[in-house]
Write a structure and sequence with these properties.
Elements (H helix, E strand, L loop, with lengths): L5 E5 L5 H17 L5 E8 L10 E8 L5 E9 L2 H24 L8 E10 L4 E6 L4 E5 L3 E3 L10 E9 L2 E9 L8
Parallel strand pairs: 1-2, 8-10
Antiparallel strand pairs: 2-3, 3-4, 5-6, 5-9, 6-7, 9-10
Length: 184
């Protein structure tokens, strides 16, 4: 780390065991992202509630190159070590995601294209879409999401995702523009 680890303890006594556990957890984070530039941990006892007993909060603020900041926290746990575990688990997941993004391993969603139904062969269960870019793409009954294939009409505005088929590009997940495509 470029900036030394900062551990702040509020409204409770500081202990060597707590510091050691935090340092171990931070060392674990560095396995997921070795270029952490700074890490700030705040551990606090929540305001005392007579009926609820002691409650603990853990806030983690991490900085890594090429990414804003990662903030993880866990509030209101009766056990300080459980609060630490849960906050660091959240930080670990966020670091893993940031690392995947930086490597380019994040799944990209297909672009939704637009067009109109150019030709329909209802008896055979297929048709063709004239895409806005001028190409014509095949689609079958099985590729229609909404409305049902039987309700499609020539000239209807549709949206779709292009996919490779055995005979070239095809339109998949065809849907009326009035009914946006559902997420995958």
């Amino acid at each position: 780390m470029q900036i030394p680890l900062q551990i702040t303890v509020r409204d409770m006594p500081r202990s060597d065991a707590l510091d050691a556990r935090i340092r171990d957890k931070v060392a674990g984070l560095e396995r997921f992202h070795p270029r952490i530039t700074s890490c700030r941990i705040v551990v606090a006892e929540s305001r005392k509630h007579h009926q609820q007993g002691r409650r603990f909060e853990v806030d983690i603020d991490i900085r890594i190159p090429g990414h804003a900041e990662i903030v993880a926290n866990h509030h209101s746990d009766e056990d300080i070590y459980v609060a630490l575990r849960d906050a660091f688990a959240s930080a670990t997941r966020q670091l893993e995601e940031a690392t995947r993004e930086q490597r380019g391993d994040v799944k990209l969603h297909e672009a939704v294209l637009h067009g109109t139904v150019a030709r329909l062969y209802a008896d055979e269960g297929f048709g063709f879409i004239a895409a806005d870019d001028g190409r014509e793409l095949y689609f079958s009954r099985d590729n229609v999401v909404h409305p049902p294939f039987e309700h499609l009409e020539i000239g209807a505005a549709v949206q779709f995702i292009e996919a490779a088929g055995s005979d070239g590009a095809q339109a998949h997940r065809v849907s009326s523009r009035k009914h946006p495509l559902p997420p995958e």
